[in-house]
Amino acid sequence: MYRDLLLVAPELFLTLASLVLLLWAAWGGDKAAKAISWVAVACLAAAAFLIPAETGADAVAFAGLVTSDLFAGFSRVLIYGAAAVALLAAAGWFGRAGDYKAEYPVLVIFSAIGMGLMVTASDLLTLYVGLEMQSLSAYVLASFQRSDARSAEAGLKYFVLGALASGLLLYGISLLYGFTGSTMFGDIATALGSPAEEGIEMGRLFGIVFVLAGLAFKVSAVPFHMWTPDVYEGAPTPVTAFFASAPKVAAMALLVRVAVEAMGPVADAWQQIIIFMALASTILGGVAAIGQRNIKRLLAYSSINNVGFALVGLAAGGQAGASSVLFYMTVYIVMTLGSFLVVLRMRDADGEPVESIASLSGLSRTRPGLAAAMAVFMLSLAGIPPLFGFWPKFVVFEAAVRADLVWLAAVAIATSVISAFYYIKIVKIMYFDESAPAFIKEREPIGAALILAAALAVSPLGYLAIPYLTPLTDAAAASLF
Amino acid sequence: MIAIFVFYLFATLVVLSGFMTIFARNPVHNVLWLILAFFNAAGLFLLLGAEFLAFLLVIVYVGAVAVLFLFVVMMLNIDFAELRAGISRYWAIGGVLAVVLLFETLAALLAWNEGGIQIAGRAPTPANVPNIEALGAILYTRYLFIFEAAGIVLLVAMVGAIVLTSRRRGGLRPQNVSKQNRRRPEEATVNMKPGVGQGVEL
Questions:
Q1: Burial of A319 (0-12, 13-18, 19+ CB in 10 A)
Q2: Which residues of chain A does B150 touch, with a Cβ-Cβ cutoff of 8 Å?
Q3: Is residue A475 within 8 Å of residue A75, measured between CB atoms?
Q4: Most buried residue among A56, A104, A296, B97 by CB atoms closer than 10 A?
Q5: What's the CATH number for B1-80+91-119?
Q6: pLDDT tens string for chain B (202 positions)?
Q7: Which of B123, B155, B163 minimises the CB distance to A101?
Q8: B163·A137 Cβ contact <8 A
Q9: At A356, phi and psi to the nearest 5?
Q10: How many CB atoms lie within 10 A of CB A8?
């Protein structure tokens, strides 16, 4: 029992921390919000140090409900990091609007606990409870700015569609349980591996399809992406930054684990689904972003597009595929958090946030540093070679080519050229268009430091990290097989 | 034999009332169809020998959730006079539904006494252990971790509801218990002895 508790130590610690912070928030009121945020960041950092590094059978806890292996550990580091950045970014952003509430950091931590459960889940029940914990916190965070009608709308939309997705997922889980006789990933794989009667095979296939549909909603892969642009646009910007990073990693890691550990023996059945979602996401994410005028909507389509590329890695399957997905998500969250940190700095002379792409015009003359950072993020998201954003795409395509999916890699490269169009358009607007009214200059040392760190990480300097990052992702992926 | 018949009866009605929940135009009817769907699902549970779940479904979903829905729907702006006007037209179908519910209750009891429906590949249930005990035994041992996590999910829902709905309103004069308790008689009352024909200076 003690060993089991040690394996979920980060979740236990964060739960205790969130309860204490919740009490602090209740008594301290919104005045304490900033202090609570800082403590919450410290708690996330402390939780990262509690992540166990067990492998194989040692990593299984609670009779198979939880597997806290290297894969889960690696994903949790990414999740905690992204959550901490979302907290640091929020303190400055909400503070001016005056609606920063002390519950914000508490809800982010609850969400992080849920995501920790998602990535450690090796049972469909753990998966569902973790997913709901993450989603419920996310619905509240989306409508956190109550005075803003768009924020309330985003929360409601997210909640209704999220409930629908949970319903699909639960239906799939019930079918899988009914036709395989277990909710544990390992037992499901064993049952799926043994041939069954014709009718039952159909039921299993339906279960797989519904589970994948529910999870695809969470990673916002096409055709379950409809909510993404609206929610990303309406939610407060720091919350959007959070949505685009940590939950994506958690849901993607979960998808990889379910595909490999639970549905591994019937790879033929899900591979075509993943391939379709990958292609549809890259194509739609690339084409639909072109007409956008709002930078947050554009980044929403960019996240759909990027999820498509990560799914190419999953479609490739095998250890190399899983490793490439992790690598892709690692670099992706740095790029996307960096872009959102720049968007957070977009405020007009009165300090009101602006979101239109047109307001970025001529940024290179009014704010050269900010423009340079944004250009680095955009070109990196486009995957243009000297920048680090090129490498994860290369790793993913390499995995696809090795798995004899040359055509898939070729189509994905073609769509990445389409998406490069709108990324480069942003750079062009910033550097060559007539100057729009300048953004207000404010001293925000933390935000500036985070932007600088993210920009350096995705600059060509990032290649220096490859010898350290690749063995980590490889080891994490190896623990799945 | 009767179990099979009752199963198909319940299953058909669940699906049918599920459809009607979506397609009925009147929101009050939607909720009533939903309640019928819950009742039939409870009947299915009863057939499977899961009597605890069946009662839970009726008590929690029909008793609490659906009635809550009904209250919310009643808050919507619906012309009830117009609805009542049609009662003479609807008494026939209403009566049929009531008879169906009565018949179903009897059928479910009958089928349950017959031993319920047997399905293949069902998880083994220990003999002579009531449902509640079996569920409790597994919930608080094997699935304890998830049970606790579900508690956190409920906490998140509670925090969320409070964050999104509570707001500080101006102009309210709430009770301050400690201030009330701190107040001593000498602060609140003054002993005066006004002379005849004189008022009291306050």
A1: middle
A2: 129
A3: no
A4: A104
A5: 1.20.120.1200
A6: 777 888 888 899 999 999 988 888 777 788 888 888 998 999 888 888 788 888 898 898 888 887 887 787 777 766 666 666 666 666 777 788 788 778 877 877 777 666 656 665 555 666 777 888 888 888 898 899 999 999 999 999 999 999 888 776 667 778 888 888 888 888 888 888 888 888 777 6
A7: B163
A8: no
A9: -75, 145
A10: 24
End-to-end CA distance of chain A: 26
Q: Residue ranges per domain, chain B?
A: 1-80+91-119, 130-166
B123 in reach of chain A (CB within 8 A): yes
Q: In terms of CA atoms, which chain A residue is nearest residue B163?
A: A103
| Distance from C-alpha of A13 to C-alpha of A45, rounded to nearest angstrom | 11
| CB of B149 less than 8 A from some CB of A | yes
B158 close contact with A: CB closer than 8 A: no
Q: Can you give the residue range of the structural domain that contains A116?
A: 2-478
Tokens of A369: 């540093």
- Number of domain units in chain A: 1
CB B33 within 8 A of CB B14: no
Contact at CB, A146 and B142, closer than 8 angstroms: no
Beta bridge partners of residue A95, listed in sequence order: none
The pLDDT, as a whole number, for residue A459 is: 87
Q: Which of A131, A31, A151, A136 is nearest to B158 (CA)?
A: A136
Of A66, A103, A178, the CB nearest to B163: A103
Q: Which structure tokens are listed for A219?
A: 């990673």
Q: What is the pLDDT of residues A194-234, one digit of tens each?
A: 876 666 678 888 999 999 999 999 999 988 999 999 999 99
Beta bridge partners of A178: none
Instruction: Mark yes or no for CB contact A62/B164 under 8 Å.
Output: no
A413: left (phi over 0), alpha (psi -120 to 50) or beta: alpha
| Contacts made by residues A213-217, CB under 8 angstroms, sequence distance 24+ | A213/A165, A213/A168, A213/A169, A213/A172, A214/A165, A214/A166, A214/A168, A214/A169, A214/A170, A214/A172, A215/A169, A215/A251, A215/A254, A215/A255, A215/A258, A216/A255, A216/A277, A217/A161, A217/A162, A217/A164, A217/A165, A217/A168, A217/A169
Q: Are A433 and A359 contacting, i.e. CB atoms less than 8 angstroms apart?
A: no
Indicate the length of chain B as a whole number: 202
Which tokens is A349 given?
A: 């002379």
- Give the tens place of pLDDT for each residue, B141-172: 889 999 999 999 999 999 999 988 877 666 77
Flag if A137 and B143 touch (Cβ within 8 Å).
no
Q: What 8-state DSSP symbol labels residue A387? A: S
d(C-alpha A462, C-alpha A457), whole Å: 5
Interface check for B159 against chain A (CB to CB < 8 A): the answer is yes
Residues from chain B contacting residue A146 (CB–CB below 8 Å): 164, 167
Cβ–Cβ gap A136/B146 under 8 Å = no
Has the ipTM of the complex gone over 0.85? yes
